[in-house]
């Protein structure tokens, strides 16, 4: 198979769809890999690294899309790429369709096969391709939240870990999935007081078992959320419903109950965000303020640490890329239930139920 690795063109997205190590595994099996020139530079890999691994280096993104039967990338295609995607071409990347109707309709129009990293799901309900980016984003959420608590960026002027004689910051983590656990771990490591909320008692029991005593758990409901936001310095939103839009757990009216200079970091922004006032931002202009509350809602947070993120992502995507390349997408997905769940759009037809529900299309098709 011919596989294309284009350069990511989303704002400040420095990750790349595959490392040279991944390219080598493909070329060893006889596949042709086309890498756009400088695609890996942001992640610390130059064209020579890919060439040595057996890739053909092409000068433009148009050439990569034109040559490839399958595109492997990191972020969803943006408008400049819509016209480049061909009928029957497989596109394997993060899509987050449920929060972007325009993207969904554009991909339907291409009649390509869209397989989304974020909905590939193992039998135990885990999301193997989303997990490493959630780990990165959860840890980064605390780094960025701590930064935006500083006064020069309109935060409260509070050191998250405190110092002797001064209380540490209070962190509220909504969601005890991968993002929430990693965020709680980082916040606890800094010495912050951490409360983590979830509706799944098994997850809360796990948190209680593995976290230090200054990380406490509570059941997630509106009453407890309203109670904690009044005293929290930093709030992390890490709620995910696979393939669907995130629920709005902090509404606009709740902001008035929060302290001026408090910070909220919405890691669920790719899926529409779990705060009503969330809107996607970029690393170039990452934060905004509503009702004196600082919002950090960067949609590609792991893109700020591209070397770590690219290696972590390739570690988990490569086995699936190899299967798709070796067997073709139809056989690979028939033989692998996890991969089949990643299939979102096939030649103009949405086949992922949460996307149909997000846009009210399920009823229309009934």
From TrEMBL:
SUPFAM superfamilies: Formate/glycerate dehydrogenase catalytic domain-like, NAD(P)-binding Rossmann-fold domains. Keywords: NAD, Oxidoreductase. GO terms for biological process: L-alanine catabolic process. It is an enzyme of class 1 (oxidoreductase). GO terms for molecular function: alanine dehydrogenase activity. Pfam families: AlaDh_PNT_C (PF01262), AlaDh_PNT_N (PF05222). It comes from the Bacteria. It catalyses: L-alanine + NAD(+) + H2O = pyruvate + NH4(+) + NADH + H(+). Its EC number is 1.4.1.1. GO terms for cellular component: plasma membrane. Belongs to the AlaDH/PNT family. This is Alanine dehydrogenase.
